[in-house]
Amino acid sequence: MTNLPYPRTNTQEIVMTLIQQSHVSIFDFPYLSGYRTRVSELINEHGLKLTRKISTRCNKFGNSYSYAIYYLDESEKDNAINLYKSLIKI
Predict the structure, then answer these.
(1) What's the average model confidence in pLDDT over 35-49?
(2) How confident is the model at residue 58 (pLDDT cuts 50, 70, 90)?
(3) d(CA 51, CA 18)
(4) What average pLDDT does the structure give for the chain?
(5) Residue 26 has what DSSP assignment?
(6) Exposed (0-12), middle (13-18) or buried (19+): which is 81, by Cβ within 10 Å?
(7) Residue 76 neighbours by CB under 8 Å, 6+ apart
(8) Tally of domains in the chain
(9) Is 9:90 a contact under the CB 8 Å cutoff?
């Protein structure tokens, strides 16, 4: 694994999670109200290429709901590391 410093912002934390586990979803950041905004910024402003897959779950009452899982391809991992370094100003 890479030897990167700990994140100091929500965006940095999302990128670090992508680097470590190659995917993120709302369930990785239940405390982060701006999760979808941060992912959108990573894609649109920083040019990170993520693949989106829609997944479905059921709540405790049996009602289904959908959410997105964003995947980081192995070929894009170096770009994510470079983005993380630029965000954390290494």
Answers:
(1) 96
(2) very high
(3) 12
(4) 94
(5) G
(6) middle
(7) 48, 49, 50
(8) 1
(9) no
